[in-house]
Batch of 3 targets.
Target 1
Amino acid sequence: MEIKLGNDDFFTRITILGLGDSTINAENLEINLSAINAVHLNNKSSFFKYSGPLLMIAGTALFVFDALNQTVVQGGNYSYSPGVAVASASLIGVGAAFTFAGKDKVKVKKWWRLRIVQI
């Protein structure tokens, strides 16, 4: 597990040996939960990390390739296609949701404290 303490600009990797009421017992130190500003989740699935931007690119590419197909390949004018627009917007929307769902660090603010530690 990696944590950011105090005003540090970096994360520190710790191995949790025990948990107290308000402390985490690491290898050679005892850390107060109030001193933790952020927790970096190392085991977060990379599915959300990579699929979000790919879905947004696919949604944009679908719209662009449909416009190129109508104008360049078929030689006509571009006409709005509701089906392509809905599919493109859906891909971009789901990709944006996956991108925000794939956060790999959690900020610990004063009103919220670390409640669950996954070991």
Target 2
Amino acid sequence: MYVQRLHQFATLKEIAEKLESGLVQSTDLKHFLSQICCEEYPDVHRFEAEQVDLERHFPTYSESTECTGTQTWGDFKLGRLPRFVYDDAKTEMESPLISSGKGVSDRMNPESSQEFKEQYNNALQYFMSRCQHHIHKLVTDPKTKEEKRLVPNACASKKNRKECKHEAPWRNRVSPAWMSSPLIVCKGIAKKFGLKTSGVRNWMGQTLGMRNNEWLNGCMPGLCVAFAGSNSDVKPNDRLPIMASTHEKCCTRKRCLKRGV
């Protein structure tokens, strides 16, 4: 699917002009990116409680570890679309606004909507924790007897084999308590979060999304559930020019808006 949008055709200068004239808003892009790249578990506390077992069973997640009691699969299974998705497809779609005989309109049943949301979040939690969780396995140092995470060969940086080339874990990108929505990264925001402002992987003008775990790879929730757990990493790279209409209020660095800085 190719989404037709502003970045497909316009330069940053043209985007800046449209932002200045009010034709587009930076909040629209931030909302779009937060939908296609989710970096939050629906229930992060549940994940933290299950993390040790999940990492121990990685990468097979076989019947012996996924099933409790008898060897039968539950509601979710890697590689299988959840049952509730099939059931929902068979259900006749209710009209959002149904007119009754007395002229009073009734909305969609909130109970069925809430039930679907709970099933969806449970499925998303299951698939995210098994396929979007970036893992550096814990190993015991034979000398110190201390546990530490070992960077696997596939993740090792060419410059330093002890560092992850993907920069995981992303501790500096976990959303602090004061952050309530995605942020456009300027030099001030970059300094707050320890993000690069130069080089190939610089963050200038990119969107820092909401994140509640330092090991979670961002993904589009719908694809994560629809692909039944296949790796569905999403790496947005859209940028916006740093200007008055895009500069975040939480940034106190006045020089961000000066020319040539």
Target 3
Amino acid sequence: MHPPLDRPHPDCQGAIDDLKECHLSFWNKYSGGCNDIKVRLDQCLKAEKKRLLDEMNQDLPQRKVKQEEIIKNAFGKNITFSEYLAKDKDYKEAMDQKRQGQ
């Protein structure tokens, strides 16, 4: 199953057009005559999605650090919640018990 093809997919427009053209033939559409084109389209859409995610997440570590700083400032604390949990004895014991299946 692929995403809706009516939205812009600039990397895959050629494969989308080929699939739509193939589907104009009733016989091809329902007998598997378009399967090769659909596989090519699926591969293209997968590559496009990976490229878009890589572009969106290229500065993710910096954004996470900035977000942690904002949270620290908002709550007036000197440490983040993750740092607090790392120092909390009760939390560590509960997590150890959970890992051991108790």
